[in-house]
Amino acid sequence: MATTKIHLLRHGEVHNPGKVLYGRLSGYHLSERGTAMAERVAEVVADRDIVALVTSPLERAVETVAPIAAALGLTPRLDEDLIEASNNFEGLTFGVGDGSLRKPRHWRQLRNPFRPSWGEPYLEIAARMRAAMDRARNEAEGHEALLVSHQLPIWTVRSAIEGRRLWHDPRRRECALASLTTFTYDGASIVSVAYSEPAADLLPESGTSFTAGA
């Protein structure tokens, strides 16, 4: 059976000075650091056997795939199933001290963290992401495909595939900005999962200073 690799790439850093939960809102673009992250990934995957590029329709994902498409000479296609999870707190800051959690009217939305009650159910996220991956696998059978998505969808489908519970502490997700989560298929079966961070030194928490244009 053919060996196929599906790379799930989280988009680069977003310009978000207001620190709102932007979710599916339009108008949120990559920061200069985020663009540098996308360019780094393009350098890393330029020699891979990638024959298909697929992206979430949100601006930050489309902007992340652009330098990769240029490096590989491929035209990305959009797939709505790769979009960010819906969230009732979109457009708000989210926190106890100075965010939306200060307001009692929001508390009812936290009543069920296992579904979760504040947004798209985890099971639905996992199902649509798996559908997008299956389409890409068929498209790139025997080769590789790269799909640009978002942290929660990527972590949710990985957790489902690896047999973990879907509800979790967001701080424990292994899915940094511009990271690659790679699924290797033998035919239609996933036989291994790998994780890498091509732009680790560009992450804000890396301690490395970033200068635009450097």
TrEMBL record:
<dbReference type="InterPro" id="IPR013078">
    <property type="entry name" value="His_Pase_superF_clade-1"/>
</dbReference>
<dbReference type="InterPro" id="IPR029033">
    <property type="entry name" value="His_PPase_superfam"/>
</dbReference>
<dbReference type="Pfam" id="PF00300">
    <property type="entry name" value="His_Phos_1"/>
</dbReference>
<dbReference type="GO" id="GO:0016791">
    <property type="term" value="F:phosphatase activity"/>
</dbReference>
<dbReference type="InterPro" id="IPR050275">
    <property type="entry name" value="PGM_Phosphatase"/>
</dbReference>
<protein>
    <submittedName>
        <fullName>Histidine phosphatase family protein</fullName>
    </submittedName>
</protein>
<dbReference type="GO" id="GO:0005737">
    <property type="term" value="C:cytoplasm"/>
</dbReference>
